[in-house]
Amino acid sequence: MDVVLKVLLFASLRERAGWAERSLPFTPGVSTAREVWNQLDLGSLKGISIAVNQELVGVNQPLQAGDELAFLPPFTGG
Questions:
Q1: Angle at 13 between CA 49 and CA 10, to 5 degrees
Q2: Which residues lie below 8 Å from residue 33, measured CB to CB, with a gap of 6+?
Q3: In angstroms, rounded to a whole number, what is the distance separating the alpha carbons of residues 69 and 51?
Q4: C-alpha distances in angstroms, 5 versus 17, 25, 32, 45, 54?
Q5: pLDDT (tens digit, 0 to 9) for every residue of the chain, 78 residues total?
């Protein structure tokens, strides 16, 4: 079985990309959340929250095979 990285998009990010969930082949060279974001070509990371395995992390969070990586748009509301 190929080793994959599960990528999730939420709310407006999902609408903009046209997909909610994707399994990407895990590439050791693409090893941080920022690098995966750039690979997906979804625009600026400004204001985007990132979670790895349901825990908020920074853009330079190292990734491991089998991780679940989620990108969340800026939170709004009150």
A1: 65
A2: 50, 52, 57, 58, 59, 60, 61, 63, 69
A3: 6
A4: 18, 6, 11, 19, 14
A5: 568 899 999 999 999 999 999 999 887 776 899 999 999 998 999 999 999 999 999 999 999 989 999 999 987 665
Q: Is 18 exposed, middle or buried (0-12, 13-18, 19+ CB in 10 A)?
A: exposed
Residue 2 amino acid letter: D
**Spatial separation of the C-alpha atoms in residues 65 and 47, rounded to whole Å:** 26
Which two tokens mark 63? Answer: 């990734």
Nearest CA to 70 out of 27, 60, 53 is that of 53
**Rounded Cα distance, 35 and 27, in Å:** 11
Of 35, 8, 29, 25, the C-alpha closest to 66 is 25
